[in-house]
Specification:
It is a single chain. This protein has 207 residues and is an alpha+beta fold. The protein has three domains: 52 residues, Roll (Membrane-bound Lytic Murein Transglycosylase D, Chain A), CATH 3.10.350.10; 63 residues; 56 residues. The protein is 27% helix and 20% strand. It is built from six helices and eight strands, in the order βαααβββββββααα. A four-stranded antiparallel β-sheet has the order 5-4-7-8, with no helix packed on it. A two-stranded antiparallel ribbon has the order 1-2. It has a two-stranded antiparallel sheet with strand order 3-6. The radius of gyration is 20 Å and the shape is globular.
């Protein structure tokens, strides 16, 4: 029998699916989640309290010869981690050495020409550390970004882009940050999270 899962901070559809033994798209495309899919659109950005319907697991039968060893590979794991580093002028920080630790899994390398870091990580990972130099490092909270049409989601993205000093600003600071962002993108400086501003933030988010 299907059950209801209430989204918690740090959840995304990939982590929920992995927790319950499903592919991400199996739950996301389930007709019972059609309203959630319409409302959120991005399965990586869910809001705490969202209701996700978890369907029943279906048994799969595979016929194989006996007295032999067989290997089965689970699909849908791991999850792609992707991060872009920009400088104060919003230019890519290219060819930058880094060390990335995701809950004990360590990766190293250089950012590409667009300042991007990419690695495959466990879908249930919640925290990480990115180290650039001895003096420059960042604590990462994975899956914590809220949907873009929520005030908290806009704050998250503006904070990540350097327009805010905190990801929990008061209304005045959020409005000032929106105006600054709109000015840089040559949008109407309304200070509101209107459709054009959401699209511009989404473009920056997806780079």
């Amino acid at each position: 029998m299907s059950k209801v899962y209430l989204v918690e901070q740090g959840d995304c559809m990939a982590s929920i699916a992995a927790q319950h033994g499903f592919f991400t798209r199996t739950i996301w495309d389930d007709p019972a989640n059609a309203e959630l899919k319409r409302k959120r659109q991005d399965w990586d950005a869910l809001l705490p309290g969202d209701r996700v319907i978890i369907p029943d697991l279906r048994e799969k039968v595979v016929q194989k010869a006996s007295n032999q060893r067989h290997r089965f590979r689970r699909k849908g794991v791991p999850q792609l981690f992707r991060l872009r580093l920009l400088d104060g002028a919003q230019e890519p920080r290219a060819s930058l050495d880094y060390l990335l630790d995701i809950e004990g899994q360590r990766f190293s390398g250089k950012t590409d020409g667009e300042g991007v870091i990419e690695h495959w990580i466990p879908p249930k990972a919640r925290k990480g550390t990115l180290k650039i130099t001895e003096e420059e490092s960042y604590q990462l909270s994975l899956g914590h970004i809220d949907p873009l049409d929520e005030k908290s989601g806009a704050s998250d993205r503006l904070f990540n882009l350097g327009y805010l000093q905190t990801d929990e600003p008061d209304d005045e600071k959020l409005e000032d940050a929106l105006r600054h962002f709109q000015r840089d993108l040559k949008l109407e400086e309304s200070g509101l999270l209107d459709d054009d501003t959401q699209k511009a933030l989404e473009a920056k988010d997806n780079f």
